[in-house]
Amino acid sequence: MSQTHSTGQGAKSGGPANAAASGNVVKRLQSELMTLMTQPTAGISAFPAGSDMTKWNATIAGPADTPYANLTLKLTLSYPSNYPYAPPEVLFKSPIYHPNVDFAGRICLDILKPGGAGKEGAWSAVLNTQTVLLSIQSLLGEPNNASPLNGEAALLWDSDKSEFKRKVDARHLEPAEIEDDA
């Protein structure tokens, strides 16, 4: 399943509308960061990767009673200039073996697809970084095998949980072992 990304009117560069949109995106992300810091949610964290507020790093703790239990997974989030009206691009930086994640780290999840008039995605401007990360964490234990990006993982999830767990462990790297993009 491929991901589609919207390039709304605010995505054009150079004009005053883009500057206003960028300012609004930064304000929204600052608010989300403050919420994440003052009201932390167990098992997830996210923060700007540097001075660019539209590029974030995140970690998710693997949910208990899943093949990802006791694992920490690293992700990146890149927010478009028309956020929150379009979803962030979210990629796993940790190598992961999962039915709905390809080997490039792309995630097939409805809320990461633009929604709205005539579109199939479930993204809504009421969603935020915290809800995105919680949804991805939930997906780890409840994959959508009807729409896999990794067909082998989908088959193993349904047929051989011990082999699935072996492949998860073989592919996993701890966050400290993952190089950051410079």
TrEMBL record:
<feature type="region of interest" description="Disordered">
    <location>
        <begin position="1"/>
        <end position="21"/>
    </location>
</feature>
<keyword id="KW-0833">Ubl conjugation pathway</keyword>
<feature type="active site" description="Glycyl thioester intermediate">
    <location>
        <position position="108"/>
    </location>
</feature>
<keyword id="KW-0067">ATP-binding</keyword>
<dbReference type="InterPro" id="IPR000608">
    <property type="entry name" value="UBC"/>
</dbReference>
<dbReference type="InterPro" id="IPR023313">
    <property type="entry name" value="UBQ-conjugating_AS"/>
</dbReference>
<comment type="similarity">
    <text>Belongs to the ubiquitin-conjugating enzyme family.</text>
</comment>
<dbReference type="Pfam" id="PF00179">
    <property type="entry name" value="UQ_con"/>
</dbReference>
<dbReference type="GO" id="GO:0005524">
    <property type="term" value="F:ATP binding"/>
</dbReference>
<dbReference type="InterPro" id="IPR016135">
    <property type="entry name" value="UBQ-conjugating_enzyme/RWD"/>
</dbReference>
<dbReference type="InterPro" id="IPR050113">
    <property type="entry name" value="Ub_conjugating_enzyme"/>
</dbReference>
<dbReference type="GO" id="GO:0016740">
    <property type="term" value="F:transferase activity"/>
</dbReference>
<protein>
    <recommendedName>
        <fullName>Ubiquitin-conjugating enzyme E2 2</fullName>
    </recommendedName>
</protein>
<feature type="domain" description="UBC core">
    <location>
        <begin position="24"/>
        <end position="177"/>
    </location>
</feature>
<keyword id="KW-0808">Transferase</keyword>
<keyword id="KW-0547">Nucleotide-binding</keyword>
